[in-house]
Amino acid sequence: MNSMNTNYSIRDEIRDFWSERAATFDQSVGHEIFSEGERKGWQRLIRKHLGEGQGRAALDLACGTAVISHLMNDVGFKVTGLDWSDAMLAQARAKANKRGTDIRFVSGDAENTMEPRDSYDVITNRHLVWTLVDPASAFKEWFAVLKPGGKVLILDGNMGRETWVKGLQKLWTKISGKPAASHMSPEMMARHQKIRSRVHFSHEMPAEAVVDLLRKAGFVDIVVDRKLGDIHWAQARKMPFLRGLERMVQERFAICARKPG
Q1: Is 195 within the bounds of a domain?
Q2: Nearest by Cα to 218 from 115, 118, 140
Q3: How far is residue 203's CA from residue 244's CA, in Å, rounded to a whole number?
Q4: Where does the Methyltransferase type domain start and stop, copy by copy (predicted)?
Q5: Domain count, the chain
Q6: Number of C-alpha atoms within 13 angstroms, CB side, residue 132?
Q7: Per the CB 3.0–4.6 Å rule, which of 66, 102, 138, 173 could disulfide with 92?
Q8: Strands, E, within 62-145: which ranges?
Q9: Alpha-carbon span 150 to 152, nearest angstrom
Q10: 0.85 exceeded by pTM
Q11: Is residue 257 within a helix (H) or strand (E), and if so which, with residue range?
């Protein structure tokens, strides 16, 4: 990371951070899927809001190692996965090759995709919106890329919100002298917090704030779905106790919105 370069922006820092995470990304619960129960939960959620794919064109933004891309492929979408980290795309392509899927992968910025206008039936993303420097512009870009009548499905959460479990974790750390279990090293955690302090949603990201920006970008029929308990329970069962408990009480949600037409 060349932080001495004055042209090195927050977007560069975000890209480099996730590139360094790529090699071990799929080892973490909540990133890759580790149970059939979780897989079925995600597929249920996708079908609930987007229906069966039936060969429709889907763009999975910030696809990472292609976890959501594969779920979309499983329910019949023709998927393009876009990410600006070459390291993540390398992992995604290797996974797709191993699984024998025909997912197309392209390098690009989720805030400025460079994809053709009015070309996708569906856009998906998971844990992307909190990293956006300018979500208002990003949502306008997604609106333009969707076909009339197309939908965006955002899978995210208000992870900046303090919960009673976070307080319990801090108390345990103070008493025991042991840090809470984490899939990131202290150095990576510090970088993560530094990035978070500089993006648009630097603190909390309530669903209502995301909905407001989607509406201003032109989206209609916006639905906030908080019924993700089956997914979170499946994930929590694979986590250390306090991390699993935190997963169950976090404010996570899916937001689906439609482009008129």
Answers
A1: yes
A2: 140
A3: 22
A4: 59-154
A5: 1
A6: 26
A7: 66
A8: 78-83, 104-107, 120-126
A9: 7
A10: yes
A11: strand 252-258
